[in-house]
Amino acid sequence: MAMTMHCNIVSAEAEIFSGRVTMLVATGSLGDLGIMPGHAPLLTGLRPGPVRLLLDNGEEEVFFASGGYLEVQPGLTTILADTAIRADDMDEAAALEAKEAAEKAVADQGAEFEFTIATAQLAEATARLRTLDELRKRSR
Amino acid sequence: MAAAREIKDKIGSIQNTQKITSAMEMVAASKMRKTQDRMREGRPYATRIRAVIGHLANAAPEYRHTFMEEREVKKVGYIVISTDKGLCGGLNVNLFRMLVNDMSEWKSKGINSQFGLVGNKAISFFNSFGGEVSATANNLGEAPSVSDLIGSIKVMIDAYEQGEIDRLYIACNNFESAMTQTPEINQLLPLLADEDEEIKHRWDYLYEPDAKELIEGLIQRYIESQVYQAVVENSACEQAAKMMAMKNATDNAGSLIDDLTLLYNNVRQAAITQEIAEIVGGAAAV
Q1: Using an 8 Å Cβ cutoff, are A77 and A6 in contact?
Q2: Residues 235-274 (B) with a CB less than 8 A from some CB of A
Q3: A5-87, superfamily in CATH?
Q4: pLDDT by residue (tens digit) across A70-92?
Q5: pLDDT tens digits, residue range B158-214?
Q6: Where are the CATH 2.60.15.10 domain residues in chain A?
Q7: Where, residue-wise, is CATH 1.20.5 in chain A?
C-alpha cells in the first residue's frame, strides 16, 4: 500500500476536503509544487490555480483555490484557501466570460483604471480555465 | 367593582406584553438558524489556521516576528465582543463579570488593561465602568463583515507592535448549544504554541518565497479570522440567548395572567356574594 498523508482544504466559507492522499499538486507562489508524504515542513503562499489530489484509492480530485496559504507538516498538509471550490462545480462558460471581460479591461484602459485589480482578475479567470483543462484531461 | 376593573386592565396589558415577547422569541429562533449557519461555515477555517499558527509558534523560524516573542507583561489588551442589542438574558453580563475578574487579577499584580470594544453593550458598560478604551466598533448588523472589524483590530495590533500592550486577549461568548453559551477569554498574542506536539527539537519550515512576508500575511489573516469568528459566534449566542430569554418572559407572563385571572374571579365572586348578602339583608329588614 502506498504511503499516505492527511490533507485538509478549507476556505473561509467551508471545509472543502479532508482525507488521506498520496500526493498533492498545487500552484505555489514560486511555481507548481508536488507534495508527497514525508515532505519537509513547508510554508508557502498560493496563487490562483488548480489543486490536484491523488487519493489513496488511486482516484484523482481537482479543486480550484484562488490564493491562500499551504502548510506542510510531516503527515499533514493544510491548504488555507481564500476561496476554494470543487472543480466539478465550476462553470466553464462563466470562467470564459470572466476571462474575456478581464482581458478587455486590461486592453482598453480608461481614465480611472485599476490595472492591478484587472490583472489579478485576469490571472484568476485564467487559473479557473486551467483547472477546468486539467479536469477535462482526466476525464478523457 | 373598581378592583375587578383594575385587575382586568392589568391582565390585558400583560397579554399584550406576552404577544410581543412570543413574537420576539420566534424572530430570534429564525435568526438563530441563520447565524448558526454562518458560524458553522467559518469554524473549519478558524480551527485550521489556529493549528497552523500553533505549529508556527513551535517552530524555530529564521525570522522572529514580534508577535511570537513572549514579553514581560506591563499592560494587557482585551478585544471584547458583545452584542449590539439587549434583551438577551445574562449573555453580556456573564462575559463582563468574567472579564472584570480577569482584569482585577492582573490589577493585583499592578498591571493595567486597555480595551478594543465590539458591540453597543460593551461600549455602554465601559462608559460607566471606566477603563482605557482605544477602539470601538458597533452596529455590525446581522451579517458582520471582516472589513467592519479591521479598524478596531488594527488599533489593538498596533498597540501590541509598539509595545503599549504585551498580551492581547479576546473575550467573547462560546456557542455550545442553543441552551448554553459560555463566556471565554482566549489569548491572541503572543502566539500560543501547540501543546500536544511530538516534535520538540529545533526545526523550521522551508519558506517560499520569503519568511517575513509569509509569516506577516499569515498572522494578519489568523487574527482577522479569529476575531471574525468570535463575532459570528457571539451573534449566534445572542440570538440563542434572546430566544431563551423571550421564552422565559412569555412563560412568566402566562403564569402571571393565570394568577391574576384567579384573583379576578375571586374578586368578582366576592362582589356578587356581597350584593346578594345586601339584598337578603335589605329584604329581612323590610
Answers
A1: yes
A2: none
A3: F0F1 ATP synthase delta/epsilon subunit, N-terminal (2.60.15.10)
A4: 999 888 899 998 877 777 777 77
A5: 899 888 899 999 999 999 988 899 999 999 888 887 665 555 566 778 887 788 888
A6: 5-87
A7: 91-139
